[in-house]
Amino acid sequence: MTEQVRTKIQEISQGQDGFTVGWCDGGVSHFHFIWLRHQCECEECGSSLNGVRGLRLDLIPERPTPREYSFHPDRLRVSWEEDGHVSTYEAKWLRDHCYSAEARAQRKHRPVLWDKRIAAGPPTFNFSEVEDSASSRLQMLETVCDYGFCKVERAPGLADEAGRLIQMVGAKRITHYGDFELSNKRMSNTSADMATLADKKSINNVGDIRQALQPHCDETYRTSTIGITIFQVFEPSAEGGHSTLVDGFEAARRFREIYPEDFNRLASTPLTGQRFDPKHAEGELPRWYRCTLPMIRIDDDQDVCGIRVNERQIAPIDLPHDQVVPTYRAIRNFLKIVYDPDLIISFPLKKGDGLIFNNQRVLHGRTAFKLEERGRQVLTNSVDLEDFYSNLRILKGRLKPQEPIQAYSQGMVT
């Protein structure tokens, strides 16, 4: 069925509370009068896209009534009884915003779940191709949306040019760490002042230790936690230091299947993550962050939409007495699945390699590495989910204008 047929109106009938639209592909949509009147985007009423609206919902009758209507395959025109206002709706716009159960399900993005078998061919892109081609860049962003991660090879591998990859993902996020977080760095955060791990007098960031790190999500102590994380390797480890990833959505699926009661508990029980940074930079006050949210977030359709797992950041559990032991049981059972080798993929990253992943879906870790003279140097940046999705929508709107806007997972925010 072609897009042209899908978005052509075949017939319209007026009911008591709305219009029923029959489409040329056999589809049927129902639009309530109140919805249509409120969604008028003429010059007088304005648009929600820019937030400039002259239309006030409280001044619209509870049950608007059409005085008359007309249509042809490309649009619907309605004159309203109350004030004689005329609204025109493009057929494609109506079809793309149909709110039937079937249409809403079709627009909802469905993630591709994976386990260790994806290690045989992880999604990988070439930096130059992605930078030079909008279609390749869109494919990269769609892949991160679908799988939760991708690798990028042959990036410059230089701090001064790190922004080139970040900008392709979205607007760079700034936190108390500053412009970026570089493992094995001095406090000045400049590319000319990188230090090895051996130069550090103290360590207050687990990313700077050489021991293996179990799969986890970063910054579970923030209410606005990291959305998309971007690693860029300037100096890899000569031995060890492989990146590890786990699909948290697949882990949650298995958890729900094996331990349904524990799944429901972690999807409904708020747990606090915390981080105390006694002296992040000279002259600054200490930082103490705390955030209380469930470990698993489900949406209105009961689909998993966000994961928040970092056992190192779990504050002392503060729950009613009879919930403490069952909550610990649930966390232990979930972590057993998250740490299951059947779910973990591991791979080395070379100088110039990048790794992009959704921190509210994909857990990341690292194998141990040895202390070396030059020192491992990995730059960490992040992009908020809304900025990532913004880039994705803009590119998709330009390159695939025929496709309706998808409803993407909002992660830990519902």
What is the number of E strands? 22
Please state roughly what percent of the residues sit in beta strands, choosing from under 5%, 5-15%, 15-25%, 25-35%, 35-45% or over 45%. Answer: 25-35%
Oligomer: single chain
Unreliable sequence segments: 185-203
Give me the number of helical elements: 11
Specify the structural class.
Answer: alpha+beta
* N→C terminal distance: 34 Å
Helices, strands, pairings?
Layout: H1 3-6, E1 9-14, E2 18-23, E3 28-32, H2 33-38, E4 46-47, E5 52-53, E6 66-72, E7 75-80, E8 86-90, H3 91-96, H4 101-107, E9 124-126, H5 127-132, H6 134-147, E10 149-153, H7 163-169, E11 181-182, E12 213-216, E13 228-235, E14 243-247, H8 248-258, H9 260-268, E15 271-277, E16 287-293, E17 296-298, E18 304-307, H10 321-338, E19 345-347, E20 354-358, E21 362-366, E22 377-383, H11 385-399
Parallel strand pairs: 9-10
Antiparallel strand pairs: 1-2, 2-3, 4-5, 6-7, 7-8, 10-20, 11-22, 12-21, 13-20, 13-22, 14-19, 14-21, 15-16, 17-18
